[in-house]
Fold:
Amino acid sequence: MLNDNQQLHKESIKYLTTVPLRENDPKFICAISDVAYELLTTDEVGLIELLYFKMKNIALRNKILYGLIRCRNLELKDFFEKAYKKERYLDMRLLAIHGLAHYASEEEIEKVMDHFLKILIKRPETTPYNYQEYEFLRSAFGLPLLIKKYGYPCLKKALQQVEEQYQNMPEAFRGHFTFDENGKAVQLRSPKETKQMIERFFASQNRY
Structure:
């Protein structure tokens, strides 16, 4: 007899198999959330991968990446390589690297991280107050966790660059939130305080 988690998973997969892609439909969003990624079979993961690459909704793709990086019993190297190329935000790219590192050699990860570093270094030009990405990259679930697991010099180099760019930002954009080792967001300040600090910063800039 199936337990509640298994039953919910089975129903979600059945639903996702039979309905069109409706990223803004609450029922579709719930079905993605109710997938028990640790229970995925090879056939089922094929469906999830297909949905991921069709989706425009970043939050849903993020949810799938979080789920699939925990599927160590499936061969997902090809998926994570493609996911890295698909994503544009550095936090999403790092999630793909989390998954890829389980399958790839140090040399392969080094090549990916060289590309990652080039994008990272250009970030201050396009996004000078890039605290959302930086907080994830430097969090307990970001580069530090990968360094703890694999210890590759290319990962340490990337974290050093993240810290340098993070510290170069005004204080108003630092220390608002982080992520724990399970990838769960942790608020360090209230949304109200964050908003006030950022607004004060921009108000002070406009005086000159």
About this structure: The chain is about 65% helix and 5% strand. The first strand starts at residue 177 and ends at 179. The beta strands are 177-179, 185-187. The CA atoms of residues 42 and 132 lie 34 Å apart.
